[in-house]
Amino acid sequence: MSPIPVCIVLGTRPEAIKLAPVIQQFQACPAFATQVILTGQHREMVAQVMDWFSLESQQDLAIMQAQQTLTDITCRSLQGLQVLFQEYQPRIVIVQGDTTTAFAAALAAFYQQIPVGHVEAGLRTDDLFNPYPEEANRRLISQVAQLHFAPTVQAMDNLRRSGVVGHLHHTGNTVIDALLSVSAQQPDCPVPGLDWNQYRVLLATVHRRENWGEPLQSLGHSFLQILDACPDTAILLPLHRNPQVREPLQAILGDHPRVFLTEPLDYPNLVGAIQRCTLLLTDSGGLQEEAPSLGKPVLVLRETTERPEAVTAGTARLVGTKTETVVTAALELLQDPVAYAAMANAVNPFGDGTASQKILNLVQAFLGVSGAD
Ligand code: UD1
């Protein structure tokens, strides 16, 4: 029997990290002819991850533009994927998460009546505009997917509550597969001028659309106040490539001697930074999953989270973006060892490192491919 064509579509850095172990599983399986398609929503930030995991793409739609709008990303992805799906005739299209690439790829597959497998299905904040546009993207993908790979029991419940059709499976989150494979190698995180032994380092990242503008200003000032209150701390802030994010942060923080602004870190360096830092301040979804697994407290710089498991487990706290609230929460952890110890627990509510193997097995069963592996 000739190998079954499968397309795995990704566009941004978190999709690349979370799909890397899935791609490795599919490419190692002779039953499948796996095509990896990049939309190109991100460029450099995806290339880093592809290189680290030794992944190659078969197609790149190269859609990225400076100041791209959601409409640009959607239209250009839909049109490009239509042509590729007609050419490859995949029996299933696999997408991950809640980006505009994932939504457009799911819709493009649906238009050709190709089944969609959704990795990291079922996350919800139940607030349509938080995060924006991701909450809508993930709900829309759930409506057209036939295979839903939920990372947690709560995500399974969310899917049932949403009335989705198709096959629901609890697999764990593939980010843990990626994280475990990288952290086992004890990666370093060299940052020019930063001596990890000299300071307690706070790892900060900000990029979400709903935090652009005023919230970003407020966060920048909260970081300055934390540094003023704790002279033994430094902040490592890898800047997102988006000028809407990096320019205001550079303006507020660029001159401070204990702020280390860098380009986006390679994935192993990021994991090395999580392992070495004292505390994370972030609006990232992936970091809310990775940091608890490595026993690091996370202050979530958002009003809502679709990852309540880490909050329930006590390792993450939702603090929003108001300067005073962020400063108070950070200082409590930095100045009170008991409060810090209570949050610094290694917990793994998001998976055990076997999600991608389970996803491969489930797709084989769905397509009637006999003999796993
Ligand atoms: C996207 C996702 C978001 C995800 C984030 C991870 C959507 C709507 N948003 O948001 O869910 O959390 O990726 O980073 O899908 N840029 C570069 N080089 C790169 C990547 C980005 O220069 O490699 C710049 C470009 O100017 C681009 C801008 O960043 O226009 C914004 O990129 P975009 O993908 O639209 O938004 P993100 O904020 O990255």
Quickly list its features.
single chain; 373 residues; alpha/beta; Rossmann fold; 2 domains; six-stranded parallel β-sheet; 15 helices; 13 strands; 16% strand
Which ligands accompany this protein?
uridine-diphosphate-N-acetylglucosamine
**The CATH C-level class name of the largest domain:** Alpha Beta
Q: Calculate Rg over CA atoms.
A: 20 Å
Give the structural class. alpha/beta
* Fourth-tier CATH superfamily name of the largest domain: Glycogen Phosphorylase B
Percent of residues in helices comes to 40-55%
CATH architecture of the largest domain: 3-Layer(aba) Sandwich
Tell me the strand percentage band: 15-25%
How far apart, in Å, are the first and last alpha carbons?
A: 14 Å
**Total discrete domains:** 2
What string gives the helices and strands in order?
Answer: EHEHEHEHEHEHEHEHEHEHEHEHEHHH
Say what oligomer this is. Answer: single chain
State the low-pLDDT regions, or none.
Answer: none
Mean pLDDT: 96
Read across the widest sheet, the strand sequence of neighbours is: 3-2-1-4-5-6-7
Shape: globular
Q: What is the fold-level CATH name, i.e. the topology of the largest domain?
A: Rossmann fold
**Topology, number of strands:** 13
Number of helices: 15
Organism: Prochlorothrix hollandica PCC 9006 = CALU 1027
EC number: 5.1.3.14
Protein name: UDP-N-acetylglucosamine 2-epimerase (non-hydrolyzing)
Keywords: Isomerase
